[in-house]
Amino acid sequence: MNNFDLKGLNDLIPYRDICKTNDEYMDKINNMPHIGLTTEALYVLTPDMSVLFTPKLRYYKNLVENEINIHINEASRLLEGDKTGELTKYILKKTREAVTTLVHNAMSHYNITSGNDIGWSNITSEKPTIVGFPSSVERTVYFHYLVAELFRCWLELQDRYIHVIDGEGYYDVLLLYTSLLNRYPDKEFQLMKNEGQGNLPQLTERPKLTTSAERFAKTVAPFGFTDLPLVKVLSPVQQGELIELIVRDACYAAAMLKYLNYYNRLKDLYSYNNKKIVEHCAKALKCSSSSYTKYFYSLETKETRTSYERHDAKKYLNNKQVEKDYKKIKDSTYTTSTS
Fold first, then answer.
1. Distance CA 89, CA 299 (A)
2. Is the torsion defined by CA of 34, 102, 104, 16 positive or negative?
3. 166: number of Cβ within 10 Å
4. Where are the alpha helices (DSSP H) in the chain?
5. What gap in Å lies between CA 73 and CA 37, rounded to an integer?
6. Which of 171, 225, 277, 305 measures 20 to 30 Å from 200, CA to CA?
7. How crowded is residue 109: how many other Cβ atoms within 10 Å of its Cβ?
8. CA neighbours within 13 Å on the CB side: how many for 101?
9. In whole angstroms, how far apart are CA 248 and each of 222, 257, 289, 294, 332?
10. Are 143 and 106 in contact (CB under 8 A)?
C-alpha cells in the first residue's frame, strides 16, 4: 500500500556508491526506463546539466525524477474518483509532510544549514576552486537537486488540486525555498510553471502593491486570475493598477470580477457553485460573506433595485463604469521603476 510518504526517496538521500566505475553508472543510465507523468506537467524542473558533472550524479538524477513521477502519477490515479475531496486533502497533507521531513533529513545528513552551504557557493561561482571533484562536491550538488525535485512534487500536486484546498496554505516556488531553506531558489535547478500554464510575471517586473492588493493577488493567483484574457493582455504594472482598483470597494469588485469573467472561470475550471464563489471572493477582498452575497446576487437581477442601492453591484455594469475603468488602465502607459 502506498502511504504517500515518499519512502523511496528517503532511501536515496545517502547518495551511496552503487557502482565502482563511471562506465558502470553509464550502463545503468542507458538501461534505466524513464517514467514520465501520465498527464501534462504543471511544473518543469530544468537542471543546468553542467552542474551534474559526473555519471553518478546523472544516475541519481534519473532515479529521483522517476520516484517523484511515480508518486504524482499514483496520487493522480487515486484522486480521479474522489468526490468528497477528503482523500485529496489527505494525500496533499501526507505529501507536504513527507517533503518537509525529507528536506530536513537531507540537510541533517549533509550537515547543511542556511548559513554553512559554502560548498554550493563555490561550485556555482564564476571561478570555482575544485580539485579533482571530490565526493563532498558531488553530495552538495545532489542535495540541491534533490530539494528541487521534492519541491516539484509538492507544487505539482498542490496546483492540480487547488480547488480542494481553496488556496489555503498556497505556496509558490519562492515561498517554498524561503520558508524551508531560508534562501532563494537555485538558478542551476530552475523550477517554474510549465509554459502555457499561466506563469505569473517575474517578481522583478511586478509593481509593489498595498497590503489589501497583495492579499487579493495571493488568494486569486492559484485560480489563474492572470490567465483571464482581459487580465493577461495587461502589463504587470497595469495588472497591479487593476487589482488596486478592485480592492478599494467590494461592491465595485463584484461587478469588475464579473466583467473580467472570473466567476465563469471558477465555475468552469474548478466546479465552484455560487456559494463557494462568494466565500472565495469575500476572502480575497476581506469582506463579510453576507455582504458579498448581496453584491453577487444583485448582478443577477434584471433591473437595478434602488431600495438596495448600496448593495447593488449591477449599477457599475449598467453605467459601463467597470468597462471604462478597465479600458482606461489598458490604454494607459505605465512604467516600472528601475531604481
1. 33
2. negative
3. 18
4. 7-10, 22-31, 55-79, 86-109, 118-123, 135-160, 162-165, 173-180, 211-220, 229-232, 236-247, 250-259, 262-270, 274-285, 289-298, 315-318, 321-331
5. 6
6. 277
7. 13
8. 13
9. 22, 13, 17, 17, 20
10. yes
CA dihedral (35, 41, 44, 47) in degrees, to 10, reads: 10
- The pLDDT score that the predictor gives to residue 337 is 35
Residues present in the chain in total: 339
97 grid coordinates: 509532510
User: What pLDDT score was predicted for residue 336?
Assistant: 37
Q: Contact 207/291 with Cβ under 8 angstroms?
A: no
User: Minimal CA–CA distance to 165: which of 110, 268, 88, 81?
Assistant: 88
**Cα separation of 141 and 314, whole Å?**
57
Hey, what's the cell of 203? 517578481
CA distance 211 to 203: 16
Grid coordinates given for 46: 530544468
Q: In this structure, how many other beta carbons lie within 10 angstroms of the beta carbon of residue 178?
A: 14
